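Data deposition worksheet. Section B asks for the primary sequence of the deposited chain exactly as it was used as input, without tags or linkers unless they were present during the calculation. Section C holds the resulting structure in token form. Section D is free text for depositor observations; keep each observation to a single sentence. Incomplete worksheets are returned to the depositor.
Section A, Depositor: J.P.
Section B:
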Amino acid sequence: MSSARSGRAPRAMIAALVGVALVAAGCTGGGEPEGGGASPTTTTSPRPQLPEGEQGPLPQVTPQPLAMNRIGDDVAVRDKVELVIDPMVAPQTVDLASRLLEEAGAAEVIVRAPGARVEDATLSVRIGDRAGATSAKELQDLGFPLASTEPESYTLAVQGGEQQLITIGAADPAGVHYGVQTLRQLTSEGRIAGAGVVDRPSMPLRGTVEGFYGSPWTQQERLDQLAFYGDMKLNTYIYAPKDDPYHRELWREPYPPAEFGELQELIGAAAANFVKFTFAISPGTSICYSDPADVAALQGKMQAVYDAGVRDFSIALDDITYTQWNCAQDAQRYGEPSQASAGQAQVDLLNTVQTEFVETHPDTAPLQFVPTEYSDMEDSPYKSALREQLHPDVVTMWTGDGVIPESVTIEDAQQAGQVWGRELFLWDNYPVNDFPASEGRLLVGPYAKREQGLHEHLSGAVSNPMNQAAASKVAETGLADFSWNSADYDPQRAWRAAAEYLAGDRFSAERAGFEADPATVDALLVFFDLNYFSPVANGSPWQGPAPELQRRIDEFRAQWSGGDRAAALEGLRGYARAIADAPEAIRAGADRDFTADSEPWLQATDLWGAALLATVDGLQARAEGNEPGAQAKFAESAEFAQRAGQIETVPGENEQQGPVRLADGVLDVFLREAPGL
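Section C:
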């Protein structure tokens, strides 16, 4: 009898899955970490070639698990289901699992502690400590390791057939929650895919830094982001909005009660989604490093949020100058302003905060730090001072080989790590759109050109997103996938996963559902392509404009010039129609917050799509010998294009405001040149 028909995979098959996962994780047979993962030269982990069960391929899970394979039949979800939990499982995880099972088809979910089984339950779901009574026996029977203590790791087994059992065992409450998030993506109406998963993140810090200029996110946007991070296994949110006066200009002053109440709400929401709320403070524009009163004010600000539950802190000293001091005392203590003297002053401040505050406050994570020289790999007197004297536990952030890098490579990270004398924490300035070259752009291209295997050389990675919070989820999905499993990262896979999430493939406190609407996914991918262009600081692209549209136009030109005008027109008309129809499909079927963020670009797409259709009609008329009709359509197209160019970004939303730009250099060029074909 095959394993698929029996509903239970042979122990040898599970052992193969576990063995590969442990090798990829750098673990010994006992599950303890032995190294940081795959070697820098390994770009992907080998996976066992296990036979698939009768139910076919497994659903895509994002972030991509370390190891996942089909181990048997799907599990049916119906009638009465028992959910067995132990003390490790957080209440919000119990709620998520219960709602998930109910939405999948359970008529009743009985939540109980380990003990006597619910007699008439058609399915048993056991979640908790992978070494505890709830999960240990089942996982041990399957050959999964029990001794792993890696933070956020989990093991999941879905066993169909007669047994109908799902087991999730984890190292900590976050790992349990992430196991349920994976279960969510294996679930469809009435069934859960028969998968075995051994998983853990490749980077310990993964998330976003709200560090852009311009309109900060609203409270509701932040709450929505924190829920999204829970869905995507992102564990870090750094609160650092440049235009929050109490973060930067008024850093000494306490938050007023209303603003502090909002911070407290965010701190609680972060904890509920297993996200580290990292409080950043940016005193560099006015701090007197040698003044004990300023150091006390800094620590007092930190103490206030510590008392509210914060255990992660960052001191941001970016976007300041070291050509002058903020007080005469610093000149007396450190000498004339310079790179070296600024480095020394910052070392003294950071080391004091690390030793006097962080190390004296229980459960506080090592201090994070954004340096004044936060990019490139070149040594300097500033970096030398920090390399030689900065407390070894202070986590230092770095943006790559430029403020907005064209790529981030292993070689870059290695060189920068040598200069700084420590592993660095990547502050990735994508998809941020607060710099002049990003004027008028919605950056929803893929999270790309970050080299597989970077987890070996970074302590973590966070994305600096756009003022448009919901639209930032496209790149954030890529960062989530990359930082969880950088050795197996595929930008295009993550890009499509973002479209599926925004098209309804999600399950959260506010929304229920398992299947993304295919038409909405396709429309989003067309729209993403139009907004693919991603510039570096000088305006040149690190991701070029509209590659799929460019491919379609190139194909059209080849067929048109080759004499097959009918095929050329048919192909281009189909894609022109997809562009023209995309905005309405997105408005009807995509996430409402994403649609609201994207509305100016959707309006422009409406008009550019109409312009392209009119141009195709004009070329059709020309092919039919109707030149007056062709000229009329070309004029109509030009009018649509002119109107599209007049649409502007929302006033006050972005640091950089101006006309909406999309597919420029591709669509506009074709529309200008088409009348001459």
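Section D:
The mean pLDDT is 90.
The longest strand covers residues 123-129.
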